[in-house]
Structure formats: C-alpha cells, structure tokens
Design a protein that fits this description.
- It contains 65 helices and 8 strands.
- The protein has 1460 residues and is mainly alpha-helical.
- It has a two-stranded antiparallel ribbon. The protein has a two-stranded antiparallel sheet with strand order 3-4.
- A hairpin with a 7-residue loop joins strand 7 and strand 8 (1429-1431).
- The protein starts with a strand and ends in a 9-residue tail after the last helix.
C-alpha cells in the first residue's frame, strides 16, 4: 500500500525540544530518554485509503502500531518518489463496467497498450502490523472439517460499508458481531454525545433541531447518536498502555463540561471555535463525524428490532451520511430531496429510496451492489424540471435556438430539439453566447460549423432589431468586445470547407446590410446620388490627434495617420474600425485564396462578394488595398464576369453547384463600388483588368438574351450601366458611347413600353425601371462630359504651362440627338402622376428625366455651336407645354404636402441609429426597410421635387424672363409649412444613419432658396416670406455637410448677406430698435464708457448701429468669404461635382463626415480666427507685432453682423449658448492691447453686451457646462484677468466682462481667482453701480458658504484692498456676504462657527468706523442708494443680543456699548 503521514496529538507529558547552546551530548541524552520511555513519535505511518474503496473505518487499522521491527521489501532500482507519468494513469470508475473488446483484437497488444509503469503498482512494501490484533481460535465442532457456508445463509443486513469485502469476509464479520453482546447506552449519554458532536457542526445542529422537536418524547433518545467512546479523540500517539484510558478520560471530561453549560453558552463557544480554527481542520473534523452519522440512523431502527441490532451495529450506513454532506454543502435541491426520503424495510435489508416519482429507476434487493443508492448519478436520468423565470432583479442569461431566435426564459421545449445539451441551467433550452463561443473552438468539425452558423444567425437577427425589446445591452457590442471578429477571422483560416463557409456567412451578417445596399442602389439615380459618404467610423481619438496636427498639410496628415495605424495592434485598430482592422489582418488575401483555390459553393461566393463590396465602401484607401491585392480582381473578373459561360444556366430549375465561370451581378456591383473609390481606380479597372470589354458584353445585349435567369440578367445589365455611369462621371469610357450608340437609342425607344406593363404586378417591372434609370443616369454623365469638350479644347490650344487635360472622345453634337427621345418619354410618364401606385414605381425614372433635362440645358447654353435663340425658345416651349401644366395638377399639391411628413429634419427619429448600431461598424440603419412616409420611402416626394427644382433653376438661370412663370412654386402651402418647420426644429445629430439622407434633403432646400432669391425682385408677395427664406438659409448654412462646400459658398455669396432677405433694414427696423430701447423693452441699463476712446463722441443708439450695419452688408460678406479661405481645396472639388466638370472629379466618395462644414458659431468666426492667430503665436514664444491692417474693420464687421442677427434673426443664434457668445466677445479684449478702445468696436461690443445681460439671457447663462470650441472657461477667465491687469485702463466695459462670471451661482473658483490671486484688479474695477447692467441680487443671493472665500472678502475689506470708491460693485457684494456670515446663527461646523465669531469680534474692534458701520449695520440692497445698500439705524434686537453674547465671552462679562 502507498504510505502517508498524518499528524497526531502528543500527551500532556511531552519531551522538551533541543534549545540553542546545547551540546551534542545533550542531544544523545534526549534520544536515549525518548527511546527508554517507548513513547510514540510525532508522526505515524498509516495506510492511505484507496480512492476507489472509500475510507476504512475498521477499529483494527485505527489501533496504535507497536514499535516492533517490521519486514520491509525494497525495490532497489526505483526511487521513493513516483516519477511523473505522461499521461498519468487513468482513474478507475466507482462502478466497474466491462470494457468493450473486439474479436479481432490481439490480447497481447491490448495488454501492451494498457500497461502502466511498474512504480504505479509497486512501491515500498511494508508488512502489516498484526501485533495488536486479537487472535481467536476456531470454535470447536464435532465435524472433521469446518462447515462450509452457503451464500444464501448470509444475513442481508450485514453491510459491507464503504469498502468491498468477499463473501467469506462478510460472513466472518457477521459471526463476530453475533458473538459480541449488545449493549444500549442511556439516553443521558445519548444527548451529551450528540451535543459534543454538534459543537463543531452548526449546520447539522440547526437542521436536526426541528426533527428532534417534532418527534415524540419516547423516541427523543433514539434520534441522536449513542456513544460512550469519543468520536474525534482516538488516543493514538499516546503511550501504548494508557492511550485508551487517556482518551476516555478526555471524553468524559468533555461530556461533563458540556452538561454543565447552557445551550446559549454552547453556541457561543461553538462560534468562538469556528472563528479560531482553520477551516480545513473544521472540515476534517466534520468528515470524521460524518462517518458515524449513518450509525445514528441505523441504531434508531435497530432499537425497534433487537434481534438485528447487534449484527448491524458495526456496519456503517453511508446513504444518509451522503445526503447530509450535501445539505452541509448548501445544495438546495439536495436538501429538498432528502426531506422527501423515506426508509423501507424489506426482509433484513434496509434500502433508502426517495418518493416513487423522484427516482427514474427503483432499486430492488436482488440487485447486487444496489444497497447504496447514488442519487447524483441517477439525477441525470430524471426528467428535467419545468423551466420557470426567476424572481430576481438581475436579468437571466439569454439563450438562443439553433436558428438564432431568442428563447423565452419560461419556454418549455422538448428535449429532442437538441437544445438542452449544456451544463448550466439544464432545464432551460437553448445555448448562451458563451457556450457558442466555447463550441466554436471544438475539435469536431460539425460543432465548430454549427456554432458559427448559429452566431451568424444571432448577429443577423440582432442587426434587424429583433432583440431590442427583450435584451439589455447590445448583442453586437458584447460579441465584438468578446473577440467575435477575430474568432471569425481565425475560423476563416480553417482548412475545412464547412467551417470556412460558416465563418464567411457570419462575417457577412456582421458587416453587410442588404437593406442598406438596397437603398443606396435606389438613390444612385437621384440628384448627386452617385456620390456617397465613406463608411468610416467617427473616431474621437483621431479627431483629437488631428486637432493637434492642424498645421500639417493633408498629405502629411494621411501619412502620419497611416503610420500610427500600422504601429497599433490589430485588436486596437478593430476596436474603433472593424473594416480597417480586418484589412490589417490581410483578409483580402484570404478571400482571394478561397475564391481562387477553394472554389466554394455559390452561396459562399456571393457572401464573399458582398463582403468585398462593403469593404470597398469604407474608403478610397480600402479600394486601393483591394486593387493591390495580387490576383483578387483578376480572379473575380475571370471567374465571375466571363464573356462566355454554360448556356444551361439559364434553363428553368437549373441548380448551380458552382458559380465559377458564370457571370454574376454581385461581382459587377463590387467592381462598380470599387470604381467609385477614385478616378485612378476606375482607369485601372477599365484598362488593366479589361472591364471595357465586359461593359460592351453586358450592355450591348438585351437582358432577355443573356444566358442567365431573367432577374439575374436584369441586375447584371443594370450594374453594367451603373459602372459605365461612374466611369463617365470621371470623363472615362466615353469612347464606348460611340460604339454603343445604337444600343442606347434602342433602349430609349423601348422605355415608353414600360407604361403598358406598369399595371401588372410583376417583380421584374421594378428591376426594369431601375435599369432604365441607370441608362438615363449614364446619359446625364456623358452629356456633362461632352459639355466640357469645348472648354478643354480651348485650354489645350492655349499656351499655358499648367498640366493639360485631353478633351474627352465625345462631342456635343454626338449627345444632343438623344434629348428628344427623353423629353417625349418624360411627357408620357408625367401623364400617370395621378395614378398613385403606378407613379410610385415610375417616379425614379421620371426623376432621372428631370435631372437629364436640367443638365442638358445647362450644358447646351454654354456651347458655341448652339444658337442661343433656339435654346431660349426650347425652354419657353418646355415651360408652357410641360412644366406649367405639371405644376397645376392636383397631384403636385399632394406631393408638396408630403414634404413635412417625409422630412428627416422635421422627423429626427426617422434617421436615428438602429438599436444594435455599433460605432466601429458604419451602418445606414435601414435594416428592416424604411417606412413609406420617410425621405427614402416609397411615397417620398423628395427625389422628384428636388429634380424638378433643379430643372426650374437651370431654366431660370438661362432664361431670366421665365422666372415669373414659376412663382407658383413658392406659393405652395406645403412647401412653406415644410420650410418653416424645418429650420425651427433642431436637426438630428450627424451620424452615418442620418448624413446620407440629410444631404439629399439639403439639396431640395438649397434649390428652393435659390428660386426664392431669383423671385425677390419680381414677386409682389415675396416680402411677406423674406424672413422665412433668410432663416432657412442661415439654418442651412450651419447644417450643410462635407462635400456641399459649393452650396455653402453660394449661400454666403447670394443669400445670407443679401439685403433683399433683410427687409427690416429698409422697413423701419432701426427705428423700432430705438423705440424699444426708449420703452426699456429690450435692455435694462445703458453702458457708458468713461475714460475710453469712445467718450469723446456721443454714444450712438442701437438703431444707428443697426443702420450702419445694414449699409455695410457687402463689406461684411467680403469679410466672411475671406475668412473661409481654408475651405478652398474642398470647395474646388465640390464645385467640380455640382457644376458638372467631370474631368476634375477625383472620387465619388465624399469627405468623411465628422460634423457640418461650418461650426455652429460661424458668425463669430473672424473674431475667433484673429484670437487663435494671436494665441498660437504667443504659444510658440513669438510676439505678434503685425496684426492685419484692417483689424479694426474686420472686428467691427463681425460685431455688426452679430448685432444684426441678434436683433432681427435672434432664433438663428439660439443654438449657440449665451456663455459661448460671451466667451467669443471676450476674445476682443484678448486680441491686441487696445483694440477694445476703438470707438466702433467699443460701441458694438457694448450694444451686444446689453442684449446678453437681459433677464432671459442671464437666466440661460451657464458657465459651468462645457462650451463648444473652448477647453476651459476658467483658463479663459484667468487670461482675461491678466489682460485686465495689464491693459484695461479701468475701462468700465472691460470691467463688466470681468464682473459677469462672478455671480453667486457660478463656480466659486472664479471668485477665488479674483479675491485670492488677482486682488490688484480691485483697484481698477471701477464700474459704477448705475452703469452695471446685472442686478446685484445675482451676486449676493444665496449667502456665501465657502469659508475660504469669506475670509478673502473680509481680508480685502479690512486691509483696504477693496474700497467703495475703487470697486463699488464688489464692495457691496463683499459687505453683504460678510454681514450675512457674521450674524448667522444657523448650525454649522465648529470651524465655521469660530470663524464667524472671530470676524464679528474683529469687526467690532475695527478702527475704520465707516467700514465697521457698513459691516454691522448692513440691511439690504438698494439700487437707488449711492452705496448700493441700506443701513439699519439701530441693530435689530436679535443681532444686538447675539453681538453682546459674543463680545461678553471675549471680554469676560464686559458688555459692549453700541452707538447707532
């Protein structure tokens, strides 16, 4: 047997250990003394129990071993310590089962395979000590041989315990038990023994108490364990002769001690022991007791059956002991099962079994080794409990079906569905995300594949918003944080096709939204619809880094950004941008390998093409990486855009097993999106990858003639025309126009036939309309390109040294012949505008007709070969025959009325991000489709009305005489109602989900405003709505998104500063402002500037200032246009797109969206620009001596424009907080040393300050909130204080700006900065009380509670740093707060109480009688008083009494004498 060592207790008579300094002789003496006493050593060699047999409780093995010599067999060549086996020997099961062997298996080979190391079997072989064993002689009988025993004679009640015994051993044990007399201890001993055991077992005591109380009095003694011997102390380790006596003595002493203690004392002692003892020791002692718990229940039964008591006394019963240990472990279900357990007595066997319904198998007495029922093993055979929802505040773990559906917590699903194969919450069906993650790394291919498929379905349903109302938090965000992206990326590298396919499907579900692609395809033919925003996440950290690199050029910024991304780990990059993180893992190379080498099934191929399309939408950089990937584009073009393929593909019911070698619309769309990334990418695709031949192949042939399924053929043909349109948008592939001109004419001639099939509800009809719209969009771009031919030829013939751009291979004469076809078709399509259902389908095509005509006539008017008179006559004919009848139709009224319900500005929730939107994955939030009444819905009038307004503006731009013909457009009530609501409603936040829709809505507003500007001088009813159009223009200017810089420039140039939109300037607006000031309706006080440059002349009124501002509008416009020069590069690209100069367009991808083009506070931009110029120079240590020569004019024009807006268009500046406005005005004092002293600047600043000091403005003033464009207001205020100390010259206007932030409701740090760090300004802060525009109550109420600031108030007053003549405003504030503090009798801290009493004593002892009187006799504020406050004639009695009490304590009984 394997030996072990266990510590033992020593006797009270113990030998002393060697001490320092003792010699070797002393050690030998101690050894001899120990051996002579024959004492037991500190450790004892015991047999280690076999794990497979349980613990042995034989009394023979627990007796102390004698110190005699033993025979020890040693294995010489083997070490004492077992070597580590790799792998280790397997553990044997408690229930042996026959091993499965095959007939053809060689026994020798089987032995060799299962052979173990010899040291696992043999070790030190030690002879068992039998010196203390009692030897009994056989009972003499008359038989010549001992009588043989038959198995049937064995008594069934003899238990084998936890170990296995042979039949002979069981019989011998039964005979020994029969020979021993049965003695029953007394009930008293029973109770004491039970109490002694319960000292270290509080759980058992607590649980057994109810059973004892509920039993009968006669059986009370039977319910506890009866023992006259100790259970814990065995006496081993003591002297061999006195061991049992000493142990019994200790046991009896314990019993006496317990008998003398009360129940409370026992429990208290129990708690003390449990707190002091090591938990492992307590567990050991409990385990010693647990072996005897079975005996307690056994004896209880045997007392009822005296004939069997003796035989069963020595056999331990393990069933109840096991259940008790489960109770002690706190398992609720096990405890409930034990309560339901009952005992059945059958014959002489005791079988413990639960209720009939609990056990799936009922054990019988004939079954061998079933006397001990193992409930844990039978638990798995029971039926699962019905699931129930836990009553807890915490949410339950989400579980999903194999289809990705969320399973309710109380759903009771059958087990055959395969949803119960997990360990946690076994009764609940479904798999958690954690379990699916674990399953995805399984070694079994089927499990990995299943897990990835289920995760992909979950992601797809989560993006559809199916879990938004059921789950807390975001599923996508949780998965991405757990590493789902890299799980898919690793699975993509798997060599197994099924795992690879499942990971591709899950990746598509994560990245691609089919509905997003659907709506992007629908808007492709809208006005400027080919241009789209890149799908780049808005990273705040990158924004901060770019702000730090503002001085770098665009190329340097992109290089720095690229280097930083390369140095970051893949996980960090993917955390902010999933697509960029995937590209960093070279996913395009893996996808190319799958397409080229693996050649998967069609579904996987389509998924990969959709993923590549989504990556191409990310950015131009992503398009370049895809183009640079070796053999990726070649593989896609060769395999999925071949010019020839098997004709059987087009047969009905043909099931494709491979998509390789078959033309695919998804591949053509990927190439089209890739071409949108830039003109260079398009040139590479057309020339290097032979896409020109593919365009000819798939556009020259009618879709019904392509050897493909009908739907796929139409989609492929449509995508081919869209790709051609993108190329023509760069001025490329126009040479194909001449080759395919007959094809285009044939298509245009067939377009009217769509009307005849529009009544049929055919799914192919909508696809045919999209194809027709793509063809017209192609003609739009070809027409624009042809219109630039003359201009480029003129530049080419000139002698300029700049880079020459060759003219396109298409001329105006080649494109002008198609206009009659399109105009005729448009007339026919407009006839069905009243048919709602038909019109909704045909509207996209009619929209492209309108756009084409607008582009055609704009280009036609610039062609020298076209007769201008003929062009004007055509426009007149188009107006009278087509557009005017169209505008008079009732259906048009309904379309204008639908603007507001479908608007994204008026309904911000329509473009809010989806519930499962993740910032690292850009989504348009179109999953599930948009409602019909939305901007991109089926009933939206925006695309058609935008195209109509574009055509009208093109016509009126060429033919000014037709402007009055379209006056009815602006008279539609639906349009006016929409414009009025749109500028007053706060716009939705700029997100990828809103930006793409808002851009199209802004186009409609812009064209409506341009038409209104043209109507300004012709429409008599225009003046009533001039302010409406100006407000819309101002709101639109601050909302336009990147890519629309041309529109912003046109609004600044013609709309924002146009006097025709500010009719107040010539209809009595200035006079009304003066009248308002006279009646005190606008301002509360007048600001004068003594000691300033403005003091020499009389101060102009606000009306005069407004009149001058109105007259200076042209200069103001020039000022703002010059300060937006930093937008010039973006403006050039935007103008090329909106003006149709295709040869200058670099990319169809718009700039990244991180907010509007202009900041919300753009009216203050010139002032901010000057301030930044000064501060940036000072930051570098340079002194900026050369400010702009027209600095005064620039600041004056800026202030004039702000004054105009604040007076006549106050709502347009409501988005700017009042605190931000004041902060911008503070820049005047920080820019230059004496700029604020200039007379015009001083006057306009004072006028604006008086408006910002009105009660409503002061109530909205919040200096503690973060301000846009300002890192810290406190830092700005400190700079203002330092500037005031240096260059203020005591200017009252400057002083008001210093005093404004010191109001009581703002941060105390602002007041501490004045009274603590900059007390010198108190001498120069001489703003008179009569000129101060803010009520002093805002400074004195509520009373100050900052003790540090109060001490500063008192110190500045007492030291004379703050005087009434120097700084009257703060003098009143300080006196009011100090007076309130020193006479306050409210309960407060000891420190504050001591401080206010000390201040009161010091105030009474002041030498300055005036200050003393002000501090003691202050009553309340009074704006009419010269001091600013009133005084008491005599102190109120309560204050007088308090003052006497304080002074009496100080003077020890001498009351002060107060003189009023």
């Amino acid at each position: 047997m394997v030996s072990g060592i266990s510590p033992q207790k020593q006797d009270d008579k113990m030998f002393s250990r060697p001490k320092p300094g003792e010699s070797e002789a002393d050690l030998i003496h101690f050894q001899n003394q120990f051996l002579a006493a024959r004492a037991s050593p500190a450790v004892k060699i015991v047999k280690k129990a076999d794990k497979r047999k349980g613990e042995e409780r034989n009394t023979d093995t627990e007796r102390p071993q004698l110190q005699d010599s033993k025979d020890v067999v040693m294995l010489d060549d083997f070490p004492d310590i077992l070597p580590a086996l790799t792998p280790g020997p397997p553990k044997k099961s408690k229930i042996k089962s026959a091993c499965v062997h095959f007939d053809d298996e060689d026994p020798e080979e089987r032995l060799e395979n299962h052979d173990q190391h010899i040291t696992a079997v043999f070790s030190k072989i030690i002879e068992r000590d039998t010196s203390a064993e009692a030897v009994t002689m056989p009972v003499p009988t008359g038989d010549p041989f001992p009588r043989i025993f038959h198995r049937s004679e064995i008594k069934s009640e003899v238990k084998v315990g936890s170990g296995r015994k042979s039949i002979f051993a069981q019989k011998m044990a039964a005979r020994r038990a029969a020979e021993k007399p049965a003695t029953a201890p007394s009930a008293e001993c029973t109770q004491i023994a039970s109490a002694s055991l319960d000292v270290l077992n509080p759980e058992g005591s607590a649980e057994e108490a109810p059973e004892a109380n509920s039993s009968n009095g006669d059986n009370k003694a039977d319910d506890v364990f009866i023992s006259q011997r100790p259970c814990i102390i065995t006496g081993e380790g003591l002297g061999c002769q006195k061991s049992e006596q000493e142990a019994q003595a200790i046991h009896e002493e314990n019993l006496e001690k317990l008998q003398s203690m009360s129940q409370e004392e026992i429990l208290k002692e129990q708690e003390r022991l449990l707190a002091q003892l090591d938990p492992s020791l307590v567990a050991f002692l409990k385990s010693r007791r647990s072996g005897n718990v079975g005996q307690k229940n056994e004896i209880k039964m045997e007392q009822n059956r005296p004939e069997e008591f003796v035989e069963s006394l020595t056999v331990p019963q393990c069933g109840v002991g096991t259940s008790l240990s489960m109770q002690e472990s706190g398992l609720e279900e096990s405890g409930r099962r034990d309560e339901n357990m009952k005992m059945e007595i059958t014959g002489k066997a005791v079988i413990f079994s639960p209720e009939d319904d609990d056990l799936p198998v009922k054990p019988r007495k004939e079954w061998i080794h079933m006397d001990n029922v193992e409930f844990e093993k039978l638990e798995w055979m029971k039926d699962l409990p019905s699931p129930r929802q836990k009553k807890t505040k915490k949410g339950m773990q989400a579980r999903f079906s194999l289809k990705g559906d969320l399973i309710p917590a109380d759903a009771d699903l059958p087990t055959h569905l395969g949803l119960h194969h997990h360990g946690e919450e076994a009764e609940r069906a479904g798999y958690s995300l954690q379990e699916l993650f674990h399953l995805s790394r399984s070694q079994l291919i089927q499990q990995r594949t299943l897990a990835l498929q289920v995760l992909g379905r979950i992601v797809q349903k989560a993006r559809a918003g199916e879990f938004a109302s059921s789950l807390k938090g975001s599923v996508l965000r949780l998965l991405l944080d757990a590493g789902f992206l890299f799980l898919l990326r690793f699975s993509l590298d798997d060599a197994v096709d099924n795992v690879m396919a499942a990971s591709v499907g899950a990746l598509r579900a994560l990245l691609v939204s089919s509905d997003d692609e659907k709506y992007l395809d629908c808007t492709f033919s809208w006005y400027q619809g080919m241009a789209a925003f890149p799908f780049v996440p808005n990273n705040e950290e990158e924004e901060e880094e770019e702000e730090e690199e503002e001085e770098l050029t665009g190329t340097e910024k992109s290089q720095n950004k690229k280097q930083k991304d390369e140095n970051k780990p893949d996980a960090d990059v993917a955390r902010y941008d999933v697509v960029k993180g995937l590209l960093k893992t070279r996913i395009q190379h893996r996808l190319r390998y799958i397409l080229e080498v693996v050649r998967p099934v069609p579904t996987v191929v389509l998924d990969i093409l959709h993923i590549l399309t989504r990556i191409a939408r990310h950015s131009s950089e992503a398009c370049i990486q895809l183009l640079d990937c070796p053999r990726l584009i070649e593989t896609i073009v060769r395999e999925f855009l071949p010019t020839r393929w098997d004709p059987h593909v087009a047969e009905p019911g043909c099931l494709l097993t491979s998509l390789h070698g078959v033309a695919c619309a998804a591949a053509m769309k990927f190439i089209r999106v890739l071409a949108s990334g830039g003109r260079n990418a398009t040139a590479r695709l057309l020339n290097k990858f032979e896409m020109k031949s593919r365009l000819i192949r798939f556009t020259a042939e009618d879709p019904q003639d392509l050897l493909l399924p009908r739907e796929e053929a139409i989609r492929l043909n449509t995508e081919a025309f869209r790709l051609w349109a993108v190329a023509a948008g760069y001025g490329q592939a126009c040479d194909l126009y001449r080759d395919l001109y007959p094809v285009l004419v044939r298509i245009l001639q067939s377009l009217p036939e769509l009307l005849s099939t529009s009544h049929e509800k055919n799914p192919m009809f909508e696809l045919s309309v999209q194809r027709a719209a793509a063809v017209v969009t192609l003609l739009v771009n070809v027409t624009q390109t042809a219109g630039c031919t003359v201009e480029l030829q003129a530049k080419l013939s000139s002698c300029e040294d700049s880079e020459q751009i060759p003219p396109p291979p298409v001329s105006w004469n080649q494109v002008s012949g198609l206009q009659p076809f399109l105009e005729t078709s448009m007339k026919k399509f407009l006839q069905v505008i009243s048919w709602t259902e038909t019109w909704q389908i045909l509207q996209p095509l009619t929209t492209t007709y309108m756009i084409y005509l607008g582009v055609y006539y704009s280009a036609c008017s610039q062609q020298p070969s076209v007769n201008p008179v003929d062009c004007l006559e055509e426009l007149e004919r188009l107006t009278s025959e087509v557009l005017q009848p169209l505008l008079s139709q009732p259906a048009m009224h309904s379309m204008w009325d639908l603007l507001r319900p479908c608007s994204a500005l008026c309904n911000p929730l329509s473009c809010s991000p989806a519930p499962e939107s993740v910032f690292s994955i850009v989504s348009l939030s179109c999953t599930g489709g948009k409602p019909p009444l939305s901007l991109v819905g089926s009933k939206s009038p925006f695309p058609f009305l935008t195209a109509l307004l574009f055509l009208i503006n093109s016509i009126t731009h060429i033919h000014k005489g037709l402007i009055s013909k379209y006056s009815s457009v602006l008279s539609f009530e639906g349009l006016k109602d929409y414009l009025h609501q749109s500028w007053q409603t706060a716009p939705p936040s700029v997100t990828p989900a809103s930006a793409w829709m808002l851009r199209h809505e802004y186009h409609l507003q812009y064209f409506a405003l341009v038409l209104a500007r043209k109507m300004a001088g012709t429409c008599p009813d225009y003046s009533r709505h001039a302010s409406l159009y100006h407000c819309v223009a101002m709101a639109l200017l601050s909302r336009l998104l990147p890519g629309s810089e041309h529109l912003a420039y046109e609004i600044l140039l013609d709309l924002a500063f146009n006097p025709e939109f500010l009719l107040e300037g010539k209809t009595g607006g200035p006079e009304a402002a003066d009248f308002s000031d006279i009646l005190h309706l606008g301002t509360s006080a007048k600001l004068s500037q003594p000691g300033s440059a403005a003091a020499s002349s009389s101060k102009p009124t606000r009306g005069a200032l407004l009149r001058d501002s109105y007259q200076n509008l042209p200069a103001i416009r020039s000022c703002y246009l010059s300060h937006f020069v930093h937008l010039q590069p973006a403006l050039v690209h935007s103008q090329a797109s909106y003006q149709g100069r295709n040869y200058l367009i670099q990319s169809m991808l718009l700039p990244e969206v991180r907010g509007p083009i202009l900041p919300s506070d753009w009216p203050f931009f010139p002032l901010i620009s000057l301030y930044n110029k000064v501060t940036n120079a000072e930051t570098r240590g340079a002194v900026l001596n050369s400010l702009p020569l027209d600095l005064v004019n620039t600041v004056t024009w800026n202030l004039q424009w702000v004054l105009l807006l604040e007076t006549w268009r106050p709502k347009t500046l409501q988005t700017i907080p009042t605190a931000a406005k004041l902060a911008r005005l503070m820049c005047i004092f920080l820019t230059g040393s004496d700029l604020f002293l200039e007379a015009p600047i001083h006057c306009y600043t004072a006028a604006l300050l008086s408006m910002y000091c009105q009660p409503k403005a002061l109530d909205s003033l919040n200096l503690d909130a973060p301000l846009p464009g300002l890192a810290s207001f406190h830092d700005l205020y400190i700079s203002l204080l330092e500037q005031f100390e240096g260059v203020s010259f005591g200017d009252p206007l400057f002083g008001v700006f210093v005093l404004l932030p010191l109001q009581k409701r703002f941060s105390v740090h602002l007041r501490l900065s004045v009274f603590g760090e900059h007390t010198s300004i108190l001498r120069a802060l001489g703003v008179p009380l009569q000129q101060f525009p803010v009520p002093l109550e805002r400074y004195t109420s509520p009373p100050e509670d900052n003790l540090n600031l109060l001490r500063h108030y008192f110190r500045t007053l007492v030291t004379g740093a703050l005087r009434n003549t120097w700084c009257p405003v703060l003098y009143v504030v300080a006196v009011a707060h100090v007076n309130s503090f020193i006479f306050s009798q409210d309960s407060t801290t000891q420190e504050a109480d001591a401080a206010r009493k000390s201040m009161l004593r010091k105030t009474w002892l002041l030498v300055d009688e005036t200050l003393k009187k002000h501090l003691l006799y202050y009553r309340l504020l009074n704006a009419e008083s010269p001091l600013g406050f009133d005084l008491y004639e005599q102190l109120p009695p309560i204050r007088l009494k308090y003052l006497q009490m304080v002074m009496q304590k100080d003077n020890k009984g001498n009351a002060p004498v107060l003189v009023s």
